[in-house]
Design a protein that fits this description.
The protein is an alpha+beta fold. The protein contains 13 helices and eleven strands. The strands form three sheets. Strands 4-5-8-6-7 form a five-stranded antiparallel β-sheet. Bound molecules: flavin-adenine dinucleotide (FAD) and iron/sulfur cluster.
């Protein structure tokens, strides 16, 4: 691990200012992703701004009937929160499908959104990787790609976003609230928060350098059956090969977002509209633009079958 300096921030303004004054600084929350990346020297921040003292750890009602989740709410607390379990069951189920109890006790809402890919070549510093070292090439294209993306991919990168929580938030139309280093605040819809890889796979979100996530808001509850199905190589403590997050109404209409297939949680309006026609129609709309590799084309069938299982479960 490279040497770094460390400070603890006690106000959002101080954290934003500290980020603005040092272009090599990074925020640290639960540390469950960042510290691993620092130990492998994949991330080498010169300065860490510890944001755990900011107190952004509450879940509060919003005036319109939704909820506002502080950036530092731990994944365990979010999953167990009474309102979340009752009105946003999809989010609760997606969270408990992720990582392990110990990790969820440390992992935060913002850190989970910002976690980096699990592409094996991203972690192998002996291999070219455009995301880790822009311009060096992509080892996964033509390499081992079983776990990687099938849709929204580019010639520079076919990585996926690993978060379960973000898939649920995509289906629930979450909005990410931020403060920029100059103090300006803004709200970014979750659909626009994560980027596709294009020619710049190292730029993963819409955040500007030093921009800080303060909260995530969810609109008022929409009812329906909330289902999260995660398909993985072992029953626990594994990232999704694919996952389906769905909210399905009694008339069969609903929303679906899929994980493990793209650089961001994947949702397509036409697939929502096709959901009541069945899994085949919804899958065709979801993955119409798919460009799988030989090793991961099985994901196309896997998503369709998982969608079928979700629809059956919703019908009881
Ligand atoms: C063994 C293992 C298994 C896992 N399995 C799963 C799984 O199955 N599913 C899943 O979804 N996840 C899984 N995870 C990932 C885990 O969920 C993430 O590591 C965790 O959510 C990151 O949160 P954190 O608070 O620890 O982030 P940190 O490690 O502290 O930070 C991660 C990134 O977020 C940035 N950041 C943190 N807070 C802010 C903020 N407020 N504003 C802007 N940037 C910020 C940091 O600068 C850093 O770049 C696993 C992790 C491990 C180690
Ligand atoms: S898929 Fe992306 S993360 Fe993986 S090796 Fe290629 S550029 Fe790197």
């Amino acid at each position: 691990m490279r040497a770094f300096t460390y400070e603890r921030s006690f106000s959002i303004e101080a954290a934003a200012k500290a980020a603005a004054s040092n272009s090599e600084a990074k925020f640290i929350a639960g540390g469950t992703n960042l510290l691993d990346l620092m130990k492998l020297e994949i991330e080498t921040p010169a300065h860490l701004i510890d944001v755990n003292g900011l107190g952004l750890d509450t879940i509060d009602p919003t005036p319109d009937g939704g909820i506002r989740i502080g950036a530092l709410v731990r994944n365990s607390d979010l999953a167990a929160h009474e309102t979340v379990r009752r009105d946003y069951g999809l989010l609760s189920r997606a969270l408990v499908a992720g990582a392990s109890g110990q990790l969820r006790n440390k992992a935060t809402t913002a850190g989970n959104l910002m976690q980096r890919t699990r592409c094996p070549y991203f972690y192998d510093t002996n291999q070219p990787c455009n995301k880790r070292q822009p311009g060096s090439g992509c080892s996964a294209i033509g390499g081992i790609s079983r776990q990687l993306g099938v849709v929204g991919v580019s010639d520079a990168c076919i990585a996926t976003h690993p978060s379960d929580m973000a898939v649920a938030m995509r289906a629930l139309d979450a909005v990410v609230e931020t403060v920029k280093p100059d103090g300006d605040r803004r709200s970014i819809g979750i659909a626009d928060f994560h980027r596709l890889p294009g020619d710049t796979p190292h730029v993963e979100t819409e955040l500007n350098p030093g921009e800080f996530i303060t909260a995530v808001t969810l609109p008022p509850p929409i009812g329906g059956r909330h289902i999260y199905r995660k398909v993985r190589d072992r029953a626990s403590f594994a990232f999704a090969l694919i996952s389906v997050g769905a909210v399905i109404q009694p008339d069969g209409k609903g929303r679906i977002a899929v994980g493990g297939v793209a650089h961001k949680p994947w949702r397509v309006e036409a697939a929502d509209a096709a959901l009541s026609k069945g899994a085949k129609a919804a899958n065709a709309a979801l993955l119409a633009s798919a460009r799988p590799t030989d090793q991961n084309k099985f994901k196309l069938d896997l998503v369709e079958r998982t969608l079928g299982a979700v629809i059956l479960e919703a019908r009881g």
